[in-house]
Amino acid sequence: MFAVIRTGGKQYKVAKDSIIKVEKLDAEEGAAVAFNDVLMLNDGKDLKVGAPTLEATVSGQVLEQKRDRKIVVFKKKRRKNYRRKAGHRQHLTVVKITDIAMGIKKPAAAKKAAPKPAAKDEQAEAAKTEAPKPAAKKPAAKTEAKEAAPKAAPAKKAPAKKPAAKTTAAKSTAAKKPAAKKPAAKKPAASKTTPKKES
Question: Less Cβ crowding at N or C end of the chain, within 10 Å?
């Protein structure tokens, strides 16, 4: 029995217990995955072809998340002194096919992945039991921060008034500067006329 599935924009011919490398899937190692995009199915007696897909499910288990071998990307334009070299490694997921069945099914291997989160729950419970000890210290730190906050607030308000004074001073100096620039503009014009008279 084999099937043709589509994932990551590519098609793969798979059979039970076959191992394939597909485009990266969002699943952890040991998690169950299901491919519902089945294009063709052969059970040994009958060949079924989808139009475009069949109501079938191919189940698998994630063995590994890895990267493919490096490919070299080299660009060149002759006679232009242009060369660019870069490397690329594609992210892949290694999947072992566990079952091929007609009809849409949920992944059956999800039960195997359940013990791993149980270990995480135990760690979370252990962290919770340790957490109340430092929790008593945290409110004291918060009260200190609250006391410091009112002191800092008046300091912020005082500088807010000073920038307003600076802007008014800047406006008054800006008003004076154009008057100073006008006589300066007249002097170069006079100097240009004098060389013309000499020559």
Answer: C
How far is the C-alpha of 62 from the C-alpha of 20, rounded, in Å? 10
Q: Which residue has the tokens 């609250």?
A: 146
12 closest CA partner among 30, 39, 36, 52: 39
> What is the per-residue pLDDT across 16-55, written as a single tens digit (0 to 9) for each?
999 999 999 999 999 999 999 999 999 888 999 999 999 9
